[in-house]
Queue: 4 jobs
Job 1
Amino acid sequence: MRGILTFATATAAAFAVACGGGSGGGSGAGNGTFAAGTVLGLGASQGDIALADMDQDGTADLLAVRGGIFDQLIVHDGQANGFGPESPYALDGHEPRALGTGDFDDDGYTDVLVWCEDGIVDHLEAATVNNVLGVFDRTDLTGAGTAGARGLRVARLNGDADEDVIMGLAGALTRFDGTTGSGFLTSVDLSPSGFLTGIATPDLDGDGQGDLVGITLLGSVLVAENAGLGGFLAGTTHTLPTPASSATAWGLLDGADGTDVVVGLQAVAGGGVRVAVLPNLANGTANVGAPDIVTVTLGEQATVVALEAPDLDEDGDADLVVATAANVYVLMNNGVGAFTLADTLTPGGAIDAVAIGDVNGDGVLDVAVRAGGSVTPYFGNEG
């Protein structure tokens, strides 16, 4: 059955479902609550962030883009109480917007893609000498078009074992195919795609390749199956009760087989804070079913600006980290697609991005929140 899921308070209290649908100690299982660490100033108020272990020391390091007069990628080492000093990398006047990470040359080190406002994609291959943060060999990729803040994803798309990248904004959809040890091939234009933002690449049909999910100009969800060589079949559009934002994620959400899709919704009067879960039909195709609407019923009525679906408590299903411009809500999945509000994080300033990783190396997932020119790490408490 499909229905409305409602949260009554901002505490870790259970909620009624209309229709079914201490600091970390190293176990790996969090309980959905968090303690704030030391706030890190970035000197610029907006931009993407990511968490990845760049120096292979077992902790997630912070990657952040810094635009304006800086035009930099900055890297901060993950530490017990937050992040260490910055290691900046100049992007030569390219205004950075979006980040993607992956081991693109299969050397065991995490590399970085930075999609810039002028359409340049900076491919930053991590140097392997002494595991030094912020040392890269750089190659500019061209042909991507104007950057979108949440339009870049890394996935296996064209049938081989290499990681590829896809990016989309304002009618353009572009793919760069990865080649082992050789960077990326020339861009492939997948247009006409229509207006798509909030690109996501879950493997919905279980064939090992990313399928395409995106948000249309009217705020509907487009789902298209990978045709096998990085192209996509004609998509299916799913209309939502109110338009989607550009926030998308995926994971095992409803207790049934197959990867599900979750998208943030725009604000509506009396609507609280809402996401839509589109369940996988698990029929060997990239089809999803009608959306369940998950609502956080609080005083805030706001658009979802960022969204992640990690398994915070390591119970096999995806939980939700839902950000508005003011707050981050942590929603724990009970295993059948019903959620409990476990914590509310309020960093101060306008929230622009969130990222998930183990910053302090205790085995429990943490949350980094970029807001108002700073990043706050929130350390997961052990379950």
Job 2
Amino acid sequence: MTGERAKRFPLGLADLERKPRAATERPREPLAAREAASRRADTHASHGTDKMGAPNVPLASALALTSERVRERMVERLRGNGIADARVLDAMAAVPRHMFVDPGLAAQAYEDAALPIGHHQTISKPSVVARMLELAAVGRPLERVLEIGTGCGYQAAVLARIARDVYSIERIKPLYERAKLNLRPLRVPNIRLHYGDGRVGLPSVAPFDAVVIAAAGLDVPQALLDQLAVGGRLVAPVGSQSGQAQVLTLVERVAPNQWRESRLDRVFFVPLKSGVI
């Protein structure tokens, strides 16, 4: 201490009086309150960086979605439902379905449910995808396959692990573009996407060992039957576009001018339409 204040030690009563704080100085919070605020800030900070993989999915959920184990559980359910083709099961286990749905639906990606992908379209249930691909591939290797209705690209990605070459047609331009974006990170070299009318098919690259149609018409377009190789298989939902009487149908080309049809399971698909939008 120096000056006049040092000479007056011990302090007098006037020196013990507190002067009011300046208006710009904030009162210091008690220690307990400061520690609580710090804990809240740490919690908010961890939540803010808790995103990885699919947007809007917390870190723990994203890791669960991308783990092999969650897809293995889906495959176990498929096996329990009667899917036996090892090629189909392996392909379903390998393709990350959550990458093909909207971020807000990523947590439901491995449930056995059809999910909306926009433009009044859906990604089919895993059990339906597996059933259709098993029917298309049964008992033989697949060289060239045609898919009608690319949608978000998921089924094409699964097909690409079973067949040598996959050609897929989408009539809705935004979905065609979305499928390209979804497939790009997976670097799938054997898928060829086309924007066009699926009912016309791709006669320039026919015949196909299999044709898989992901939309329901009142019948199977003759153009697609004609593009099926002899011995090839076409799998499609057929029936009312109201969905009340759709049946999963298998058509086998047994001779150049002869096809054999089998009606199998009740299903529900979006309608098969002509033209492009």
Job 3
Amino acid sequence: MNSVTVVYHREDGAWWAESADAAGWTAAADTFAALQDLVRESLAFHFETEDIKIEEKLDDGAVLTPPTGWFGASVASAFAKISEGFGVAALAPTLGGAPAVARP
């Protein structure tokens, strides 16, 4: 199983992602939700397997998901799992499609 840390960036109204664990790989999309889908699909293509553990972070270091590889999980259920697993007080998407993390 491949373990990959993905870092998300927001610039000029769009989102993009990169990973030091996937040489030469990047992904970009207009919304955060679309980018998360693209990240999972394109990493599966890059590594030629869907057996990937993905740890997602924002460029400020905030962790969005534990490294568990939730392929096929809905964003809502992923957010629920994160809030339970990390003791996060509140975690929800914002209107702009960006993740919002409220720490206790």
Job 4
Amino acid sequence: MKVLIVESDIDWRNTLSAHVGELSYEVSVCSSLGQARDFLKSRQPDILMTDIGLPDGSLLPELASLRQHFPSMGIVILTAATRLEDKVRCMSDGADYYLVKPLKLEEVSATLTALSRRMKTAPHQSTSESEKWTFNRKSGRLASNGVVAQQFTDKESTALAALLQSPNYPVSHTQLFDLLRSGAEEYDAHRIDALIYRVRQKLRSLQESPMQIRNIYGEGFLMLRRSSSVDIVLES
């Protein structure tokens, strides 16, 4: 597997690239946002490991676009930013993992192993434009050819958007927990399971649902399109 590391600190970049290389990954490195953009114009790594605060700008505003353009690419954020808002935004916009510096190389190894395993076992899905659906995250409306087919609550929309933004990898309870908790409201595994159940029931109520949610044991939830002819566009 090919891994692109985007990191401005030369010592950490060299340490990280050497370690990842020892794990038998093919490693490329960039030191800035501009270099990463140029790299991704011509090549797609299997996994992107990147800081969000880079010398020439922040990756955060571009994360959702990266996920849209590279839906099968694993994205691991390595950052010193500890604010919950940053983590929630990164996970919501398509990151698979959010690791806070300083971190141990063993944590990097475990993350890459888990992500690689998910990528290898995720079903391959190709899409065409023969059947168009849209899901608007803010309004909670799932529509086909402009006609609203189902309405979801705010929390249901958050969960459904997370699943749609991770088309090839399961979304874990932990990831959903980070996205859903706000203020004094707390979510545990049972509440998340109940929420996913409600989303499932609404999808099943459609005469011909474009997608289904599958439980992946030990990993979380995976969104599957009904067929390769279904194209679902996520609108923010």
